[in-house]
Design a protein that fits this description.
With 74 residues, this protein is mainly beta. The chain has one domain. It is 11% helix and 39% strand. The protein contains one helix and four strands; from the N terminus they run αββββ. Strands 1, 2, 3 and 4 form a four-stranded antiparallel beta sheet that branches.
Length: 74
């Protein structure tokens, strides 16, 4: 999902609505959104990968792409 797509989905919602995140796609737990960060995402498969800090000298920049990461409370 892109920022544009997320903005469209949230555009009609109340600004004070809290965001919670599922621990996994099966809904085996939920947590409030705690923080938003940026990084370099390198996919290892179609469903998982690694996130690197943008200033990490070891980040394989040519293999990754800049992303926004949503961090849960737990």
């Amino acid at each position: 999902m892109t920022v544009k797509e997320l903005k469209k989905l949230l555009s009609t919602e109340d600004d004070m609505t809290e965001i919670v995140m599922s621990r996994d796609e099966e809904g085996n737990g939920f947590s409030p959104l705690a923080d938003v960060g940026k990084g370099i995402y390198v996919a290892e498969s179609t469903w998982a990968g690694e996130l690197y800090n943008e200033d990490d000298e070891e980040a394989p920049l040519s293999e990754g792409k800049k992303v926004i990461c949503l961090w849960p409370t737990n």
